[in-house]
Amino acid sequence: MHAEQEQRHVYYDHDLGIEAYNLSGIVQKFPNHFHDYYVIGFVEGGKRHLWCKGMEYDLNAGDLILFNPRDNHFCAPINGEILDYRAVNINMDVMQRAVKEITGKDFIPHFTENVVYQSDITQSIGDLYDAILAHEPKLKKEEAFFFLLQQILQEHAAPFDEADISEPNQQIKTLCSYMEEHFSENITLDDLLSMTSFGKSYLLRSFTKQVGVSPYRYLQTVRLKKAKEFLEQGVAPIDAADMAGFADQSHFTNFFKEFIGLTPKQYQKIFTDKPLPVTPAKEWPNE
C-alpha cells in the first residue's frame, strides 16, 4: 500500500547548479551514509528518528535539517509514519561561491547544528523549491537561494577555521584517498592494512570511529558518487555500474535506491529530460 503512495522527485536547476529534492509518502529506512555536498531540508509531514554524528533526534513537521559534507547520518520512521520531505542539495563549490557573494569572504561554511526544531527557515526552503519547480526567472530563483543561505549563515553556520571539527589522522586519510582513487577496483581489507600499522580489528574500529562509517560503506559511498556523475553525463546505468565498481546491475540498482531514494534511471532522467518551456501570463519570458 505504501509503495503506491510514494512519490520521489529530484530536479536539477542549471541556473543555480543545485538539486531540489522531494520525497513524499516514504516509509523507507535510510542506512548510515554521508554526502559530499550540503543538504538543507525540512520535514513537511510525518515523523522520523534521525541519527547523525552520534546524536539522536525525533523529527516532526516543521523541523529543519542541515548536513555538512561528510556528516554521516541515518534515519527510520517512527510508528510506521510516512515521511514528506523537501530539500536542496548544494555542492561545495557552489556553496563557496554563494558564500563569497553574500559575505565578501572566501571561506567554506560549517553548519553548527544538524537539526533545528520548528524553524521558520523551512518557509525559505519551500520558496526556493517552488521557484525551481515553476521554472521561474533566474533572478527570482537567485533571490530565493541567497535569502535562504543568508538566514542559515547568520543563525546556524561558522567558517571551517572557527568550527570545532576533529579530522581523521593521517593513516586514515591515506586510506580514504586510496579508495577515492581506486574506487573501481576490488579493494580488500589486506590492501588497506598494507598502508597502515594497524591490525584488522583496530583498523575497522578506528576508521569507523574517525570517519563515521566503515571502510566498506565509505568505498560504496565513493562509488555511488562516481556513478551519479556518470549518469549525469548520460552513461547508461549498466555501464555506470561497471565503471563505478559495482559487482552487478541488480546490486547497483538496489544500493542506489536504498541511499538516494530513486532508481538510477529515475535519477538520470532529471539530467536528460528537458523541461517544458514556461512563460507565465503578464511576465517576461525566461532568458
Automatic annotation (TrEMBL):
Residues 173-270 form the HTH araC/xylS-type domain. Coiled coil: none annotated. It holds the Pfam family HTH_18. Keywords: DNA-binding, Transcription, Transcription regulation. This is AraC family transcriptional regulator.
